[in-house]
Design a protein that fits this description.
three-stranded antiparallel sheet, 2 domains, mainly alpha, 78% helix
């Protein structure tokens, strides 16, 4: 074979090698364009889903940073099984008009594509980006309303107890806190569900980046729940305290929003401190085992 013929053969083989990923990518876009568009719109417009604007780019950056696993072996059969399951889930979800499972099928299909082309080892290497993408999907309305109501009551009780501790006359009725001259409503937006969702996502992110053992990662994620609950109770107390002693306007508008952001930063510092302590424990435990 001549040199020209060899180059022609190589070019043809290269084009054939690029063809399957291109076709697969186009099929993925056609199948999941609508749920992806709706998901991005929710990230932008829905305060309960705004954390997705951070998690999705971080997931992409982590996957890029991790890169390809060496000696990857495609798992065609297992990958096809995951892809078929994702497509069926996508179809059934659209028929039932259920957005959460429809969006989750996108993540499942992405896992299936990775397994099909690069194998299970590559999918395991990218476990954290896939988890972050799953966490970026807003929970169903039924789930959020079910979780939010107990959080509202807990925050109301904690805030009222702290106000009583500071000798503020309080009357608590459900999620309504009555103080002299004012009435505070702990609404669903003030239930702490947003901060809980964000802290859980950050717990997964910090655990995946800083910690090495499953027990420490699990403990960090578990610690995110009481931190979010306690900080939200403190927020309710602080709102009532400022309304009672400073100005009723402190419980609404810009000041109320600023107070919430500042306390959320406190919760971020606490979860970061917990991650640092667990990383130190891991290091000392590893040194002890090595010795």
């Amino acid at each position: 074979m001549t040199a020209a013929g060899t180059r022609t053969t190589e070019l043809t083989a290269g084009r054939k090698g690029f063809l399957p990923p291109i076709v697969t990518g186009l099929a993925f876009v056609v199948l999941f364009l609508d749920p992806a568009t709706l998901l991005v719109r929710d990230w932008w417009t829905n305060p309960e889903a705004g954390h997705g604007l951070l998690l999705a780019p971080v997931a992409g950056w982590l996957a890029w940073k991790k890169g390809w696993v060496g000696e990857a072996r495609p798992s065609i059969g297992f990958g096809l099984l995951i892809l078929v399951g994702a497509v069926l889930l996508r179809t059934v979800s659209e028929l039932a008009a259920e957005l959460f499972t429809m969006r989750f099928s996108m993540v499942a299909a992405a896992v299936g594509l990775v397994v099909y082309h690069r194998g299970v080892r590559q999918a395991l290497a990218w476990w954290l980006p896939f988890v972050l993408l799953a966490l970026a999907i807003p929970l169903p309305e039924l789930v959020t309303s079910t979780i939010a109501l107990p959080l509202q009551f807990r925050a109301s009780r904690m805030g009222a107890a702290l106000l009583e501790w500071r000798q503020v006359p309080v009357r608590l009725t459900g999620n309504v806190i009555e103080i002299p001259g004012n009435r505070l409503f702990v609404t669903e937006a003030c239930s702490g569900l947003r901060s809980l969702t964000a802290l859980l996502s950050i717990g997964f992110l910090m655990g995946g980046l800083w910690l090495n053992h499953i027990w420490s990662r699990t403990l960090l994620i578990a610690l995110a729940i009481p931190i979010a609950v306690v900080i939200n109770g403190v927020r309710v107390f602080l709102t009532g305290f400022l309304v009672y002693f400073v100005d009723p306007k402190m419980g609404e508008g810009f000041m109320h929003m600023t107070e919430g952001w500042l306390l959320f930063l406190v919760s971020l510092v606490l979860i970061g401190a917990a991650a640092a302590v667990l990383a130190l424990i891991e290091k000392k435990w590893g040194a002890t085992r090595a010795a």
